[in-house]
Description:
Chain A is an all-beta fold. Helix content of chain A is 0%, strand content 44%. In chain A, the strands form 2 sheets. In chain A, strands 1, 3, 4, 7, 8 and 9 form a 6-stranded mixed beta sheet that branches. Chain A has a 3-stranded antiparallel beta sheet with strand order 2-6-5, with no helix packed on it. In chain A, a hairpin with a 2-residue loop joins strand 5 (61-66) and strand 6. The model of chain A has no long low-confidence stretch (mean pLDDT 96). Chain B has strands at 3-7, 10-12, 18-25, 34-39, 45-51, 58-60, 68-73, 78-83, 92-99, 107-110, 114-118. In chain B, strands 2, 4, 5, 6, 9, 10 and 11 form a 7-stranded mixed beta sheet that branches. In chain B, strands 1-3-8-7 form a 4-stranded antiparallel beta sheet, with no helix packed on it. The N and C termini of chain B lie far apart (40 Å). At the A-B interface, strand 3, strand 7 and strand 8 of A face strand 5 and strand 10 of B.
Amino acid sequence: SYELTQPPSVSVSPGQTARITCSGDALPKKYAYWYQQKSGQAPVLVIYEDSKRPSGIPERLSGSSSGTMATLSISGAQVEDEADYYCYSTDSSGNHRVFGGGTKLTVL
Amino acid sequence: QVQLVESGGGVVQPGRSLRLSCAASGFTFSNNGMHWVRQAPGKGLEWVTVIWYDGSKRYYADSVKGRFTISRDNSKNTLFLQMNSLRAEDTAVYYCARESDSGSPYLDYWGQGTLVTVSS
């Protein structure tokens, strides 16, 4: 079955840029989406179609994709950005969805 | 506003069955594909299954295929997940989620989840 691979954890100091990667064989042809999940809460979409930001999401969150890797960047990371981040996409058929394993972002 | 409210979770013995429901409101339910996503305690999100807006197509993760069945009743704005032959590894919070009607397959609204515990 199709898999998306993320690093388990990323740590940055406040004000630095955090980058979370997501690799998958179908990403050259399929969009990546990113969700933020804070403890005890349902996930929230922060990036869709590789690089678009839903309304209400801060501009410091951005997304990009190249080849088999998608990247979520958080510039000027703040303590409030601490959360688990998941990439999400579909397999090559477009029928089965998949989440990456998740990345815990620590800002301290 | 869009609301998704799951129910039906609880404690169940291995090998038994459970049926989850998700009551939808605030949008035209029959226009959107719907999903179930689960999260085991302390673990990541796992996509479980999707059903097309009209129920014509359904797809499952390998981990639940043949044991779980997704269905919907568009007249009652309700999504279901029938879970059979439950295993300890099915223990998780189960979320229902709406697929965007923009044509892009992301999940734009989520419920708060219902906890399923499989234990003897």
